[in-house]
Amino acid sequence: MVSERLGQYIDKKGFSYYAFENSLGAGRGSISKAVKEGKSIGSNVIENILSIYSDLNPIWLLTGEGTMYKEDEDFLLNKSVDTFALQTDRSLDSQQIPLYDIEAVAGLVPLFQDRTTQTPLDYISIPRLPKCDGAVYVTGDSMYPLLKSGDIVLYKEINDIKNEIFWGEMYLLSMDMSGEEYITVKYIQKSEQIGSVRLVSQNKHHQDKDVEMSKIKALALVKASIRINSMH
């Protein structure tokens, strides 16, 4: 049933029926009633849903064939994915990874402190990735050519910054720089300075920098990156 699959989509996205109906300009309770009672949904309403929710795969919605998200169907056509897994990582067949807007959530620190209060821009679903807590867009060129501005990094939060660093791995981190939050992606290596770590860029035009560990306020291990390739 189309209504049953639509209910699955609404649940997966975490929408309330009221918010979903409101976004369509539909009457209150019209969608929730159809879903709960297994009733049909008018073609004009379906067209409206598909025009507003562009990630919803119309073939799956109408027939049940394929995957829920359109992105899953054409992912390999216009995106490239690199994974940076540890030997101890176990890949998951599927997971919904929230994509956040760093500026909208006011930085990594509040995002990591309470993800439940933050609204993602969208969800990313890529099979056979290690467990990830979230994803954000990269800015800057410090990790170029491995990462470039506009790429997406998928990460796993580190709770114990002092004791859970895997030396030489790539991290998304937030630092306190004279009272301002500075967010970057760097390799973290051991420093000769006691109480510090060395931040190393992929871009050879950027110098390595020793930073006091106490200045790192949020830390996440980069598990994968996504680059959107323009198709002409």
List the helices and strands and how they pair.
Elements: H1 2-13, H2 17-24, H3 30-37, H4 43-52, H5 58-63, H6 70-78, E1 79-83, E2 91-92, E3 97-100, H7 108-113, E4 122-124, E5 129-130, E6 134-137, E7 152-157, E8 170-177, E9 180-190, E10 196-200, E11 209-212, E12 216-228
Parallel strand pairs: 3-6
Antiparallel strand pairs: 1-12, 2-5, 3-4, 6-7, 7-12, 8-9, 8-12, 9-10, 10-11
Protein name: Helix-turn-helix transcriptional regulator
InterPro entries: LexA-like (IPR039418), LexA/Signal_pep-like_sf (IPR036286), Peptidase_S24_S26A/B/C (IPR015927)
Keywords: DNA-binding, Transcription, Transcription regulation
Task: Write out key terms for the chains shown.
two-stranded antiparallel ribbon, 12 strands, Peptidase_S24_S26A/B/C, single chain, alpha+beta, ten-stranded mixed β-sheet, 232 residues, 7 helices, 25% helix, LexA-like
How many helices does DSSP assign? Answer: 7
The chain-level structural class is alpha+beta
Inertia-based shape: elongated
**Approximate helicity band:** 25-40%
Largest sheet: 10 strands, mixed
Give the integer mean of the pLDDT values. Answer: 86
Low-confidence stretches: none
User: Order of SSEs, N→C?
Assistant: HHHHHHEEEHEEEEEEEEE
The count of β-strands is 12
Euclidean distance between termini CA atoms? 37 Å
CA-based gyration radius: 21 Å
Percent of residues in β-strands:
25-35%
InterPro entries: LexA-like, LexA/Signal_pep-like_sf, Peptidase_S24_S26A/B/C
Keywords: DNA-binding, Transcription, Transcription regulation
Protein name: Helix-turn-helix transcriptional regulator
Pfam families: Peptidase_S24
